[in-house]
């Protein structure tokens, strides 16, 4: 084992769909900051829409990689 350039796809930075910030942790395309923002907003319409979309994607297998 040598070299610090091992490609680790699990640790890749991925841009958040909403704010575009590169982040290691995402849940259904959104970074933790965006989820916190929509989850604690006075109007939680964005959060509910995100949850509804996730539910659809789980059921269809889109989010779990089943398709
Ligand atoms: Zn974000």
TrEMBL record:
Q: Which domain of life is it from?
A: Bacteria
What protein name applies here?
Answer: Uncharacterized protein
Q: Which organism is it from?
A: Pseudonocardia alni
């Amino acid at each position: 084992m040598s070299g610090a350039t091992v490609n680790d796809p699990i640790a890749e930075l991925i841009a958040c769909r909403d704010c575009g910030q590169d982040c290691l942790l995402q849940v259904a395309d959104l970074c933790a900051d965006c989820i916190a923002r929509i989850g604690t907003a006075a109007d939680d319409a964005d959060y509910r829409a995100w949850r509804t979309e996730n539910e659809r994607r789980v059921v269809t297998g889109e989010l779990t990689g089943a398709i």
